[in-house]
Design brief:
Distance between the termini: 21 Å
Number of helices: 14
Shape: globular
Number of strands: 0
Helix content: over 70%
Largest sheet: none
Order of helices and strands: HHHHHHHHHHHHHH
Length: 265
């Protein structure tokens, strides 16, 4: 029996649960599309409240991605290219926000950066600067949950890249910083781009840490997920419209990353 024939014969005991799992994942999305107010969708998306949440979400997600790039790329390089005691523990701590409940992350941010927090108390007394319940607080909360996606992606790209190119640049007189900027970054640019897209999408959909650390104030901290949550009580059509936008972003991200992570051999 050929390999193709053996692959085409699927056991019924696996086929039925597999189809049920597919339906379980797809049917809610189909329901969202079926119940969407397509006729009033342009009006819903251009209403002042929805448009405000859209603009704020795009601004905060982009800012959080910029922060993640600024801090996450050097962190990924340290994890991939240097040896130091406790590197495994550091890697575990970096990836912890991936599995940590977002609400717990928001509480942790409050305890550290809140007005009475470990660092927030000093920021308030020294500079009169507070993060919670501000737009900057939204960016901080989103960067906290999104940066691990970038770090993991960039670290994987760095481990796959051949370090001999950096060593060759060093033998030609380039400093470590110059080699990183002129050699390493171009080599891992696809991984950086993929990680940035993932981080941006994660930041755009963040809810738990944002509402805990930054609150839900229209025009200041109310992003799209928070607006969906609030609109479900008063304006379900607006909630569906915002949900469709988030769904479209998720599909676009998956389509963009398909060639990198989802291709079949």
């Amino acid at each position: 029996m050929s390999r193709r024939a053996s692959r085409s014969r699927v056991p019924v005991a696996l086929l039925l649960p597999g189809l049920l799992g597919l339906l379980f994942l797809v049917l809610p999305l189909v329901g969202l599309l079926v119940r969407a107010p397509w006729r009033s969708l342009p009006e819903q998306l251009t209403s002042p409240d929805v448009w405000e949440a859209l603009k704020l979400s795009l601004f905060c997600a982009t800012s959080a991605t910029a922060v993640s790039l600024l801090l996450g790329v050097p962190l990924a390089w340290l994890l991939a290219r240097t040896e130091f005691p406790g590197r495994g523990l550091v890697r575990a701590l970096v990836t912890l926000p991936l599995v940590l409940p977002p609400v717990v992350g928001g509480v942790a941010l409050l305890l550290v950066l809140g007005r009475n927090g470990i660092v927030g108390r000093w920021l308030d007394s020294a500079f009169g600067f507070t993060l919670p319940f501000t737009t900057t607080g939204v960016v901080v909360a989103e960067a906290f949950v999104a940066m691990p996606f970038l770090v993991i992606s960039v670290e994987g790209a760095l481990r796959a890249a051949d370090p001999r190119y950096e060593e060759a640049a060093a033998t030609l007189g380039a400093s470590r910083l110059t080699a990183f900027r002129r050699v390493t970054l171009p080599l891992v640019a696809p991984g950086v781009a993929a990680g940035a897209v993932l981080a941006w999408a994660r930041a755009l959909g963040e809810f738990g840490a944002t509402i805990t650390f930054a609150g839900n104030f229209p025009g200041r901290t109310q992003t799209m997920p928070l607006a969906v949550y609030l609109a479900m009580e008063n304006d379900p059509e607006a909630a569906i419209a915002l949900s469709l936008v988030l769904l479209a972003v998720s599909v676009a991200v998956l389509a963009g990353l398909r060639g990198r992570w989802m291709s079949t051999p």
